[in-house]
Request: fold
Amino acid sequence: MKALQSVSGWPTFNGWYLWGCLFVLLIGLGYGHPTYGQQPRPSEARSSDGPSSVDYIRDVRPILSTNCFACHGPDDKTRKGGLRLDVREEALVALSPGKPAESELLRRVSSADLQEVMPPVKTGRRLSPREIEILRRWIAQGAPYAPHWAYRAPTPPAIPQVVAPSHFPIRNPIDAFVLYRLKQEGLTPQPEADRYALARRVALDLTGLPPTPEEAEAFAQDPGPDAYERYVDRLLNQPAFGEHWARFWLDLARYADSAGYADDPPRTIWKYRDYVIASFNANKPFDRFTLEQLAGDLLLEEEGYVPKGQPLNLDEAWRLPPAALDMLIATAFHRNTMTNNEGGTNDEEFRNVAVVDRVNTTFTIWMATSFGCAQCHTHKYDPISQKEYFQVFAFFNNTADADRSDESPVLPLWTEELIQKKQQLQQQIRQLEEQLRGKKPEEMPELRKQLEEVRKQAAAIRPVTTVPIMQELRGPQRRVTRIQHRGNFQDLGEVVSEGTPAVFHPFRPDWPKNRLGFARWLLSPDNPLTARVIANRFWEQIFGTGIVRTSEEFGTQGELPTHPELLDWLALELQKDWNVKRFLKLLVTSSTYRQSARVTPELYERDPDNRLLARGPRVRLTAEMVRDQALFASGLLSRKMYGPSVKPPQPNLGLTAAFGGRIDWETSSGEDRYRRGLYTTWRRSNPYPSMVMFDAPNREVCTVRRGQTNTPLQALVTMNDPVYVEAAQALARLTLQQGGSTLESKARYAFRRCLIRPPSAPELQRLIELYRQARDRFAAEPARAARFATDPLGPLPGGVDPVDAAAWTTVANVLLNLDEMFLKR
Amino acid sequence: MHPRLERLQSLTRRHFLGRGSLGLGALALAEISGSWVEAGPSDGVSSGPSTAASGNPLTPKAPHFAPKAKRVIYLHMSGAPPHLDLLDYKPELVKHDGKDCPEEYIRGKRFAFTSGVPKLLGTRQNFRRVGRAGIWMSDAIRPLHAVADEVTVILSMTTDEFNHAPAELLLFTGFARQGRPSFGSWVCYGLGSESQNLPGFIVLISSGSQPSGGQSCWGSGFLPSVFQGVQCRSKGEPVLYLTDPPGLDRTTRRLGLDALRDLNTLQHQELGHPETATRIAQYELAFRMQLAASEAMDISREPAKVLEAYGAVPGAGTFANNCLLARRLAERGVRFIQLFDWGWDFHGTGPNEDIRDGLIRKGTVTAKAVAALIQDLKARGMLEETLVIWGGEFGRTPFREGRTSQSALLGRDHYPDCFSLMLCGGGIKAGYVHGASDDLGFRVARDKVHVHDLQATLLHCLGLDHTRLTFRFQGRDYRLTDVHGQVVREILA
Reply:
């Protein structure tokens, strides 16, 4: 860890001191930190009754962007009256710096004349008095412009020197930035959460699973000063880590086990899912992870695994070493686009749709830029032209896939054993052919028959699985990219070649003009966005909300960061080595993360979503975590990793997909019923219903942020879904077998399997009371008891009283539904 | 954006503004409180102050202006009904039946299953003028003749898509690709739900298949998922996971919920998170919903006369059952009831997709249920506040489908340029025909209504301005009608 930068008193560079004063005064205008805006004016900043300073980025641009740029912005096709307001030189026609009264802009936005007022009446928009006042003050200040914060490269910020309270030690610079802001706000951080809460919170965050009560206890009793760090290290090294973080990535990658659109047929692409899990577990540097997914096929050439410029024969790909195969599998990332098999559709049309999706998804994931607008017209808010859009499109427009129903090209994958057998048979074939050379058909009929047979055997060896991949087209097969007017693939314009938008950092001449070069461009240290965007994504996963809340949008229409310096510091920290585990460890070992989640009504009212981080994160678990946790607590969860997706129990709907196969499925048997949610077959038209209720997306398109709703339908899932009933039954049986001899010890045991922490006395009493009530009810109706304790888990073990089992199942069902179960505490 | 996030935004902003010592801060506070009072209902849907007030995004919200309709029953015929054999009578087409399609109508056009020069296909159905307005209807939908005086027929509908899935997405989400919120989600987002025991947006599917557009037709897109449609079934468990586990009686369930409430309350006291209180309330609602939904979805107690009128049979899962359920759900305050009926893709590829007898069979049972629904709603005084829409995602060609030109069966290909749709109830003219197609039915002759215009008009009936019903996502304000849509005032009562 880098030592804290020691600066005496206030940090001095970049006008920090002045900003510190101004900042308190400016809080009233919103979140943004003023560093990104124009420089302060000390005289104004210090005076609270004089004309106050307005910041272009924070205060003015949002108003102009929301209300004006659609007609007076970068898009010259829709520009009205020739007026452009996003560029100062051009806007001066309507602005008289320093003289609000003489500015046409101000006159029009405040006009009472319905013919004159801007925005026009028909838009339904009207500037509020506050917005007009902001514009007036801005013009009075000289109408200064400033570049958008996110398009300027992050610079190493000074780490604030703050006096830390004893309950909140500065463990790393995150704490310094957070505490500095809290002090500005007059808030105090919470002390560290208790060990059990921490044990569960950080295990859920890093592995998606709670710890076992034993693991938690070992950590809770660990007297070592670095007990927490060692606990975190253990979690980072669990295979469950990769499974959990793969889920996060698969939402972005829109991974699904079906091809999408109307009939939504199954698609075999799970090798890609396994690649993501393995990559997170191997702590593959994020830059490498990016290169492989966007351009693994081209990387293969660059690294000498295959000859340059020659198409790879996929039937011979098994000869490649595993690392090289992984690079090909990685490219399935962009084969997760949908394929349209509906009768009468045009393959070229939907190939274009897939390429558009690849462009937009890439920009969303790495740049948090809603690039898609520029597909049909020049972007209305960010300076990206339609031509530039299709220059990026050109990078992705030359792969061999073409919306075919067989998903070709696909990479066959073999086991070692199969490869040996294949080689053996090929050897035999060669020998037999040798023997037959020059012989007439009527000669050696036996040998001929033998050859036929061996050939048949060789052909019968099928790959274990296949995965759709990206393969660059060569020579005359390459497509020419043209601008598509209004995004219509048949309405073509000017020919364009590969290139990146001028608003961003330049594309270096030594990079190849292909996907690999494009991926390098994304990862370049000159890129102001990628490191910030990715750091923000990890932050969002851990803390629940990004430093930039709109983690999908860093462009001018996105929100400003709550802690801009912290975001820059994190971005630079991540960019050093793109080491994901190190970065996550940094986040979860901060005092900020380790705070108690307790909140007072005042603080909640002040900051309901914990943007200022005056308390620990308390965020709802994802759909997969809700499921996995219930299975984990009840001892049912299978820890089997990898392989084809599975089909856990789901209700039968008795419907088919349009023109397509059945929606209902044959439930998997054995431990495949109890695999982690990540391995559940993801059918886009019908994602697993109980996970949908907990905001799992259908994965038709890239999902950046999932919802965190709290609905009655969720209650029905965890109360009544046979999966959860089965979990309650299993937990009840475990409780009876392992929970000791007394009611107290049993209740305590069941409670701790679910919530990790020991129960309080009132909690314990309430559970025992419920047990007694339920037992009385079931004792009167033993047939009901037997049913409730065994359907669907199966017969009770010998010697277990069904009434007892049913009563504990009732208790377990309640435990699995506790509010605390759905949240990281 | 999540309502809680919205809430945070407004609360924090208000708070920060209130604390600010600048003149601007005070000004801003005044402006915000002012606009809340002044524009509360109208802004309620785009900036969410009313959700901020209650914390429950489904709390009923006032519309932008006084509504005519309170709820919607949308009857969608998946596959696109052959409108030229049902509502749009074209004697000229009958006259030219079997002739080559004039080149001007097919030049440069793409059709799903037809290439070359197809033959014109006049209807084989018997048409007659019905009702005071003399609306043309064919005998394939004979039962609907009786409600002709209640409905508006639009003969000039048009869409941009000629494949089922994109056309359904355009119709139900305003955009031909996945990812946008559906019509019902927008309406619930804008108006909340009137029922506190049932979901605000319910989907019922009949004839065995989902619509081509899949669950996206009732998905919430980027709106919070509480607004997505809940698929209910008229057969089996009406709502997924509604039924208590086998062996658990209601009393024991209640005992468990009491314990759950007590334990959650302890947790609430310790950590102080309002979300815990919300969860307690949601479990109580779930408990009530178990009864309410089962009761609402049980048609077995309906009088035999009513069942007969619809053609409904308890336990059958048919379109007729779903129409009756739609009325029951409407009575119970469900805001948006969306029906999908499969089997309207009349290509002529099988006897059930033949535009002669196949259409009469499908049309008659369907029309019977729709007519019964309209009459039932009227008899109960609910029609004037319930919008009922019947139609498909596009129309069908005035010529014979290419693949089946040699078969004994008659069918039509997909056709987006001109089609028909029927609607009635809340705010819509009774006994009226809007627009017209040209003589052969290829083009809209007058008063073109794009699906975006239809959406704008339906929202208008609900008191919502389609340009103001917006949601900010990825830095842009999105709406159901994308950047299009004009209210069709001529069809408003």
Chain A touches chain B through 126 residues (CB under 8 Å). The beta strands of chain A are 410-413, 465-468, 481-484, 492-496. The first helix of chain A runs from residue 16 to 26. Residues 363 and 369 of chain A are 6 Å apart (CA to CA).
